[in-house]
Model the fold of this input.
Amino acid sequence: VQLQASGGGLVQAGGSLRLSCAASGRTISGGNIGWFRQAPGKEREFVAALRWNGGHTFYADSVEGRFTISRDNAKNTVYLQMNSLKPEDTAVYHCNNYPVPTTRYWGQGTLVTVSS
Done:
């Protein structure tokens, strides 16, 4: 079982990116999937989460109104649409279970770099 994050890149401040979290080896059928990020020299922090059944969403205050988490059931994938990006959004982004991540699901993540 793997959760593979992708879609990162280099973008100017004010720009947008869409990250994908694809689940392989299992079909997501319940629980919550979250996005987390870790900036250089900082601890990993929560960004956004989605309840698979019902679609309820949760956001960190720092991204509320700018980021949108969504899912595609058929593709077994969770997305993070990031708009109005700021330099402080620069980090490696990961997806995992929420609120209690599963250690073995941490992968390499995907790097988002926002230039000023």
User: Anything to note?
Assistant: The chain has a mean pLDDT of 94. Strands lie at 2-6, 9-12, 17-24, 32-38, 45-51, 57-59, 67-72, 77-82, 91-97, 110-115.
